[in-house]
Amino acid sequence: MNAHAKINKVVLAYSGGLDTSVILTWLQKHYGCEVVTFTADLGQGEELEPARAKALLLGIKPDNIFIDDLRETFVKDYVFPMMRANALYEGLYLLGTSIARPLIAKRQIEIAKLVGADAVCHGATGKGNDQVRFELGYYALNPDIKVIAPWREWDLTSRSKLIEFAEQNQIPIAKDKRGEAPFSTDANLLHTSSEGKVLEDPWDECPDYVYSRTVSPEDAPDKPTFITIEFEAGDAVAIDGAHMSPATLLGHLNELGRINGIGRLDLVENRYVGMKSRGLYETPGGTILHLAHRGVEQITLDRGAAHLKDELMPRYAELIYNGFWFSPEREMLQAAIDHSQKMVSGTVRLKLYKGGVYIVGRQSPHSLYSAKMVTFEDDAGAYDQHDAQGFIKLNALRLRLLAQRGRH
Fold it and tell me: What is the Cα 218 distance to its own chain's centre?
């Protein structure tokens, strides 16, 4: 977007913090446009009403301030579909930030349509993944929308310049926000991520004060916690027999994970824009849920379906990481994944202990596990072991032919 583009009204993804408050005023001054603020409650654990008060203070009309509780939508329509796929980016990352961006983008576009805005704006920097995720979401849902990305336009390239701009424009700054932040964070109901500053050297161990959602595994209780999680068609519906809404259930697992030091990840990942970055992730409830879902799939999914899912998963996870939630290929993969989950119902028993999640039991009305078939005791003719000889010989045929050729 260039400064000469005519913008009448813009919907800003607004947290009420220093960066987005500066962006709000910058939009008013730079584009001379009407600003609508949108603040999403995704379970980040912060009081959101101060964002409303700050927006009012900065001249935003009451009707142009949107604060939406999206916690249930976030878990039901975004986190749970992703969990059905067992999605892990680069084998480890549970995609907590990545999966939140399409929902924020979708709601921004909905609000833009509602208020007649011709543009949307985000506060993501030009170095990261989030700019891609937001903007791919915007364009997928409204190909004609105008997008403003201030970090790619302005000259406020340091924290001191942001603070100077804030002071010049009477933007309140909390005392604890005036100093240089030791690292940046992003949080929602699924996870908290931390990166930058003290975390930039991948050789240095993460300081304890960076962790905010989990106790240290060393400080977790010496006695394990046992829980059961019940699934229906691939989605968790109850903990210890108590049925809960999606967001309530994930919140409960977060607390269990917090107490037991579960879900910490120190990762150097490959950003979509090309560089490597180091992130510290805390995903307490999601880590438990991921393992539990794997547990119920172990007894309900056929081998062919299970292995095909595992082949599709890295591609699915990469699509989410790179911002292609609203792409046809992600929707195609989702349809296949969801089809596989029809019989993924049952209960998994887990042991939580000092940072670890252990599956200790699983049962399902749709179980494919046959104790009679697999037993080392007398199976009363359920399995004819002589059949294995022909099976092995047929599978060995091409290997034998290769070996025979090698003799000549």
Answer: 26
pLDDT at 379 over 90: no
Q: Is 63 a catalytic residue?
A: no
Residue from 211, 240, 217, 234 nearest 340 by CA: 234
Q: Is the pLDDT of residue 323 over 60?
A: yes
For residues 261 and 144, membership in a common domain is answered with no
41 catalytic, yes or no? Answer: no
CA pair distance 147, 388, nearest whole angstrom: 63
Of 31, 336, 43, 16, give the one whose Cα is nearest residue 166.
16
Determine whether 101 is an active site residue.
yes
Please check whether residues 107 and 167 belong to one and the same domain: yes
Catalytic residue among 84, 130, 278, 345: 130
51 in Cβ contact with 67 (< 8 Å): yes
The residue from 184, 212, 216, 245 that is catalytic is 184
d(CA 62, CA 59): 9
pLDDT at 380: 74
Choose the catalytic residue: 19, 52, 186, 258: 19
Q: Does the annotation count 71 as an active-site position?
A: no
- Whether residues 282 and 150 fall in one domain: no
pLDDT of residue 180: 63
Residue 331: CB atoms within 10 A of its CB come to 12
Look up residue 253 and give its two tokens. 């697992």
